[in-house]
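Re-run with default settings, no changes from the original entry. Doing this only to confirm the output is reproducible before filing.
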Amino acid sequence: MPGRRRDSVAFTVVVTLLVLVGAGVMSLVIAVSGAPGTFALAALLAALPVGPLVGCFMWLDRYEPEPRSLLVGGLLWGAFVATAAALVFQGIGVAGGATDEQTLAFLAPVTEEATKGAFLILLLWWRRHELDGILDGIVYAGMVGIGFAFTENILYLGAAYNGTDGLGPGGTTALTGTFILRCLVSPFAHPLFTAFIGIGVGVAVASRSGAVRLLAPLVGYVLAVITHSMWNSSTLGGTENFFAVYATMMFPAFVGVAAFALYRRRSEKGMMAAALHDASRRGLIPATDIPWLVDLRARRRARVHAKRVGGPVGERAMREYQAAAIELAYLHHRYLRGTAPRDFVERGQDHVGVLSAVRPYVCFPGQVVPTR
């Protein structure tokens, strides 16, 4: 499929070049912002919430794991491209007369959500086949948000310690307060804001309506800007106002989005089962294999069994078979919904070809060991 390969190459080249440019810009910003030792400490502290947050989004992504290269691309985009572009746009706004309050409450949310959301729009444009619905959109948005928060936290932590944030003389006390506020109390903020764009992109992918496909990402962006603006504005009214907004609006919003993501994750099993049973009736996959494909624990048991009876070769065959079946399930689900991509036939043939080639070497628990 030359068209899909060209899109993949174009996406990779554009993202790589922008990441390199963004990394250069942010390295320069950090270099001129203070002593290297200060920002080394800030980077270490800013990295602490990254691992747990990434782990949460990877856990959400277990039913149909996204390509690691794209997930890393989302992190790098957020850390370098989105932050650098947002700084440029905000600098233009400040040069045009925007006050600190206007920048915080309006300019920052508008520019930052636009630069973060651009990664999802590029996915929708060039790598649409990697987006199967709302959960995928949330996962990619979360990765971008985590990367953005990491770099932004370095700047905030460094400024707090150096006393250049305008809030006091700096030092360890200021650094500790900023760390608690940004890295412990609200590490989910940027992933939460951008998750609304991810939901909008996911809705667009799964919709049969042209109007919905056009408007859903825009509505998601507007919601991201509104929640981001509310969050930033809460800091203008002092500590009491911040915690009031945090308790009554932001944390409930986080719980709501998290609950929605968990609901979508739980629904994946039933969706996959229905799609694969229909595919089985069409002769695309044996019905007896389906229980070992739609349940996460059963998948793991199947891989352990394959390794025990077939060694590394058997385990690799099982992984390939499961991966192709999962991709077929999501693709077939979109076909049944009437939202199949334009290259549905070619992609389906690719998946079925892998299944047919690998199936003779696959042995599920309770089945006869295949002969080679």
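The longest helix spans residues 238-281. The mean pLDDT is 88.
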